[in-house]
Structures are given as structure tokens and as C-alpha cells.
Amino acid sequence: MLATIRLLIAHAGDMSNLILNPDLNTYCLIDATLMSLPPEQDQLINAIDDGESFLSRPDAATASDPVAAMQAGILRDSDRDHIVNDVDTSLREYSVFYGTNPELQRLMPPARDAYAAAMTRSIDLIQSLAKPNANRPMPAAYRDVMEAGRAVIGDEINQLARNVDHIKHIVAAQRSFAKAGGSSEEVDLVELIEDSLRINGLKNGTDGIELICDFQHCGPAVVDKHKLLQILANFISNAKKAVADADLSVRRITASLSQCDDDHHSMARIRVTDTGVGISPENLKRIFQHSFTTRKDGHGFGLHAAANDANAMGGSVSVSSTGSGAGATFTLEIPLGRAEVVQR
Description:
By secondary structure, the protein is an alpha+beta fold.
């Protein structure tokens, strides 16, 4: 787990350094914050070992553990509060200089709060060793509870790091006009579609939405992972908004994956279909144009960027709708292939 977290943070840090964009200053601060997360896990491991050793003493019920008090204080002040405050500062800094980013505000506070709650439970248990207590847990029970808590904290750290890593790519795509291409890698398309659903907080039953997933196995694709993820997340986000805006008895979103070979390539076709408000014929012609949007809070960049990014990956995007109130289908087609084949 720690290796995974360190890898995520290292990648996030690399992106902050490589994308020379003033809009990413906020994420440099978050990266610095995330760097303290693996050492925090190391401190929790030490606290588990020290606490179990203390509870094994014959006088544990009547003794105080000053080491536990020190460890609880460090984890509370230097780790939990420091990380939460830095995330809050980053959110506030971004909002002041660049306005509210809905995806940033939606993803980060829940991850921050879940992390803080998990940390607080572990800190309270460590702090309980600092004073005499006749009802102390047995050493093995203490370790079990603390290890379970550390696993939860690790999961929340993992989610926080993934959100930061993904959001930085979104902001880079939205704000930077530099057209330098990103690196390509072999990706599992089913996993990436599922990630886009998770990023949007969409599962069957969310907000009364019926979610249907129809994924056929069609092999991997070699693409810029974050660009593809942003395209799919954009499609899903638009579908959620479309069904939310419609007066419907049935709200349904269908995500599908299939293979559609042409004369030259094996292609993957990813479709996101909704039963929402639909798209008028006049808007259908302009949907991928830069700065075109029908939403008051829209910027008109997402679908335009999706079309450009799909083309850069050798693919294409398209949309179909029979008109207002009839729902819509957004389609992405990209070449299939493995990394070793593409690199020859």
C-alpha cells in the first residue's frame, strides 16, 4: 500500500514540475502536503508497535504512556491538521484566483473529511494510552483495531492522491494552451470507464439514476490515460446533468464498450447514452466548437478539448440526438493495440 501511495504522489509531483502552468501553483502545495502521507503511515506503525508493547506491561492499567501522548500530538498537529489545513488553503487559493472549479470542490472535500475522520479515530485510541485506565484493550485487540484503522486511512490517502493527480490534469487541460503531447501507456478500457463513473460519483441508484454498463472485452489501447479519462469523465458528467435537468419518470445512463474494426485498425467504441434533455438540431452542429455551451455554469471547453484529444490519439468523438427531450449519445472511438506493437 505504501509503495502505491508513494508512486501516486511521485507521479503527481512530476506533473506539477513538468506542466509549467501558473494555474497549477495550488497543486504544488497539495503535492507538498501529500508528501507527508507515507511518513504518517510509518508513524502509525510505530504507534501500533509502541502501544502494543505498553499494553503488555503488568502495570498497564495504572500506568501512563508519555510516548503515546507525544505520538498522538504529532499525528494530530503535524499530520492530520497540517494536511487538512493545506488542502483547505489550496481550495481557497484556487477559488480566489481562478473561480470555483465544480469538480475540484466535489472531489476534494469528501476525501479530506473521510481522511480526517479516520485519522481522528486512530489518534483518540493512541491518546487513550496516555492516562491510567482500568479498561484498556488487550495488546492483540489494540493492534487489530489500529491496523484496521490504518488500512482505512491508507484507502482515504490513496483516494486523496488519485483525486489530486487527476484534477491537476483536468486543470492543465482546461487552462493551458500549450499543446505539448502527453505520454501514452497501455490501459484497460473497462477499468478506465469504471474510473470515470467513480470520479463522477455515479453508480446504479445514484440520484435516482439507473446505470446500465455493457462492456465487451476488446483488449487494451495505448493512449494518454489522463486525456482519455477526462473525455470519459466529461461524457458521464454531461449525461448526469442532462438527466437531472429533465422531467423524467425514468432517469437512465448507459455506458457501453464494444469493438468496431475498420479497414485499417481494430477500434474500440465507447458510448454514453442518457435519457435526458436531448440536444436540438442547431446545437448538435456546434456541440464540439470552442466556447460553445448551453449551460450557465459551462465554459464551452470540455467537449472541444475532448474532440481535439481524441483526434490526437488517432480516434474521434461524435454525438447523436433526435432533438430536445429525446436524450443523447456521445461516442468515442479509439484504436486498440498493445504497447509493444505500437512501439515497433
